[in-house]
Write a structure and sequence with these properties.
globular, 5-stranded antiparallel beta sheet, 234 residues, alpha+beta, 4-stranded antiparallel beta sheet, 29% helix
């Protein structure tokens, strides 16, 4: 697993003036000294915070809602502190912060902690959860009760034993991005779907958990296949 070191370098320059001449003034585009970065400052009424939007070519806009453009919003800072307290490594935490600032991940301290607590309760370790979060962008923003638990309950109904849950979801970290269908027979995400079966392997009666990926309307040869082999059920 290679760490994605995503820092905050090159995201923008500080706005040197915070004066507010007129309430609700029209946005004034400002070209910074660095040609690769465009800074737009929208002045608002005196009782609201200045919103600074910075755009770097090739990157999503980063909305700041703090007076100091280099200070993280308090909600994201709380998530950052919480992850540090759990022993997550700095490069992975920076990746989570960067995704949140870019709007790719929407979460709070309470939501992220709820996800981590639930995954811990089913047998995953902190470094394993960190690994899953690095692959599944939205994992720390999912509802533990309606998204995570419903998937785990589905796996158990399909015959996956409790001891096999951690290994299965670790090998399929994006499985929680799928939702249980109305019939409770498979997991769906758009036109893609997942069906899990526990099947015998070999002649010794040993069982394995088969995770099968399908795409609606695709032929057999075009349908996506499971990225890894069956997970053995102890």
């Amino acid at each position: 697993m290679s760490a994605m070191l995503v820092g905050r370098q090159g995201l923008g320059v500080a706005c040197s003036s915070r004066t507010q001449s007129k309430p609700f003034a029209k946005p004034q585009p400002v070209q910074s000294q660095r040609a690769s970065i465009i800074v737009r400052v929208t002045q608002q009424s005196p009782d609201t915070k200045t919103v600074i939007t910075k755009t770097t070519p090739g990157e999503l806009p980063l909305p700041w809602s703090e007076k100091d453009p280099y200070k993280l919003p308090s909600s994201i800072e709380k998530v950052q502190r919480m992850l540090f307290s759990l022993g997550w490594e700095k490069p992975w935490i920076e990746q989570i912060v960067d995704r949140t600032m870019k709007g790719m991940l929407r979460t709070t301290e309470e939501r992220a902690k709820g996800v981590i607590d639930y995954l811990t309760s089913v047998g995953l370790k902190q470094d394993e959860i960190c690994n899953m979060a690095s692959i599944s962008v939205v994992l720390l923003g999912l509802n533990p009760e309606t998204r995570l638990k419903s998937v785990v309950d589905y796996l158990k109904r399909r015959g996956v034993p409790d001891s096999g849950i951690p290994d299965l979801v670790l090998k399929h970290p994006r499985i929680f991005e799928y939702k249980l269908n109305a019939e409770g027979t498979e997991l769906v995400k758009g036109r893609a779907r997942i069906q899990v079966d526990v099947v015998p392997v070999g002649t010794s009666g040993e069982m394995a958990c088969a995770v099968n990926y399908f795409r609606e309307g695709a032929s057999f040869m075009e349908a996506p296949v499971s990225p890894v082999g069956p997970v053995r059920a102890p």
